[in-house]
Amino acid sequence: MHKLDGLPERVTVYEVGPRDGLQNEKAVIPVEVKAEFIDRLAAAGHTVIETTSFVHPKWVPQLADSGELLAMLQRRPGIRYPVLVPNLKGLDRALESGVEEIAVFASATETFANRNLNRGLESQFEMFEPVIAGALEHGLKVRAYVSMVFGDPWEGPTPIEQVVGVGARLLDLGCFELSLGDTIGVGTPGHATALVEAFGSPERLAVHFHDTYGQALANTMAALKAGVTVVDASTGGIGGCPFAGSATGNLATEDLVWMLNGLGIETGLNLDELVATSVWLAERLGRPSPSRVVQALSQKALSQKD
Amino acid sequence: MHKLDGLPERVTVYEVGPRDGLQNEKAVIPVEVKAEFIDRLAAAGHTVIETTSFVHPKWVPQLADSGELLAMLQRRPGIRYPVLVPNLKGLDRALESGVEEIAVFASATETFANRNLNRGLESQFEMFEPVIAGALEHGLKVRAYVSMVFGDPWEGPTPIEQVVGVGARLLDLGCFELSLGDTIGVGTPGHATALVEAFGSPERLAVHFHDTYGQALANTMAALKAGVTVVDASTGGIGGCPFAGSATGNLATEDLVWMLNGLGIETGLNLDELVATSVWLAERLGRPSPSRVVQALSQKALSQKD
């Protein structure tokens, strides 16, 4: 363990596997498997697990069981189980399920706002404002995602001031946390530093890096040095890549925890249990985890059995 | 492109694909393919390409054609084509082939010295000393690798002073460059910083990170910040992993260049040509490149053809 100056003592890993990781799975995963998955994550030490989404089932059929899942899930005290909520209909369903924290999803670019939300960069706020206001009225905490913060596939690099504009407005609306999403994984460490610094203060920022081009951990280092202490990651690296299939998407929780452990940064997470959960999940998804740590440690375990 | 304070303006990528990348391939690769591979790398802008090894063919059958390869290769002016040389016999063969630069391979741990070199941590120098002296006598440049610098599979973490002891001695023997090798990929950024700083000056240091646990680029960032300007990498990430098969071994040149390009650090390398070479090589090796950049860019190219 070797610490490095200028890094936080503790990092909160915001686990997105059950929602962001599973949402694009084609084969329907039984709700019992999802509930067990989430409970394994809690047992491994996670304090915040994005559980599901109350988006219309037509758009994300895999998460059509969100109400059923929340009814079944044994929520542990002290652990946050936020859910993604796109609109007022979704908020109503989340409230019926006893949800205490939600997340909304915004775009930093015009084209992605059009394609993903069917709104413009400006008009997307018409969707969020009533959702955020309604959630706050009911005493819920609201997180906001901003996606495509470094670039999108149509417009190229995203101007930093445009990301700050969208993000600052979401914070002003009362969101307690802003997750900056490199949805297509094109960012590099200097860009990550510049973006975090452009917000003035890192206190309410989280980062959500994708490993599509292998940059997620290098970018994470840059964000931590700039003062960010909340990092999104997905069990086993599942989900999240628009180009490269299942191979390279979300930052894998295990790869992140390996780095943080080596740096002596506390997370409260048990890496062995995380790896075991990813191996267990991979069996259920029918393909190996894309996480390098999971691959290395599970093969090592296998070779030691020989 | 977003620069970051405290990083070098320019980095030399020391390409190890033809030697370190190919040496563990089971199926024999035709010497003509190797020559074309190396020439493609030169055409893509590489200035230093570790070409082959004059190790005994019994140990590395894949590189038994080293003399033939060097005779066939059209060496371009201004480009270095170093070769690995384990002993005096290998040095003689390298000299016969008109080699101008060699590399020797040392261990930072007792157990790996025993297993890989059949010597101890101390007695391994009996192998190197005559090779280095003989090479210098003939006007050759000598690079030294030190392997297992962060840990090995038998002894756990390697004490930093032990690495510095082995490395400093190799530099004292006249090696112009010392490549610090994380042979099993267990290092994290704080450890990388501590090791580079322990040498006192980064001027003659290079780093050789493996991506077994996904840490190679984060570690590279740490090394660059500590003043290192030479980074080893392997085309498409081929080779180099003792545990996880072909999936996660050497740092992929393309993943490194993506990061350096994003940081505005000059390499002189053409990323598109590197990716095309990795795709070409993957076809000859019969499996996809493990590089995330190669996977993403080649799938993007395919999807744009649709």
TrEMBL record, chains A, B:
Q: What InterPro entries does the entry give?
A: Aldolase_TIM, HMGL, PYR_CT
Q: What protein name is recorded for this chain?
A: Hydroxymethylglutaryl-CoA lyase
Matches recorded under Pfam families: HMGL-like (PF00682)
Instruction: Name its species.
Output: Nonomuraea endophytica
Q: Which GO terms describe its molecular function?
A: hydroxymethylglutaryl-CoA lyase activity; metal ion binding
Q: Where is the Pyruvate carboxyltransferase domain?
A: 11-275
Cite the PANTHER family for this sequence.
HYDROXYMETHYLGLUTARYL-COA LYASE (PTHR42738:SF7)
Question: What does the UniProt keyword field contain?
Answer: Lyase, Metal-binding
Which PROSITE patterns does the record cross-reference, listed alphabetically? PYR_CT
- The EC number on file is 4.1.3.4
Enzyme class, UniProt record, top EC level: lyase
Q: Which family does it belong to?
A: Belongs to the HMG-CoA lyase family.
> In its UniProt record, which GO terms are filed under biological process?
ketone body biosynthetic process; L-leucine catabolic process
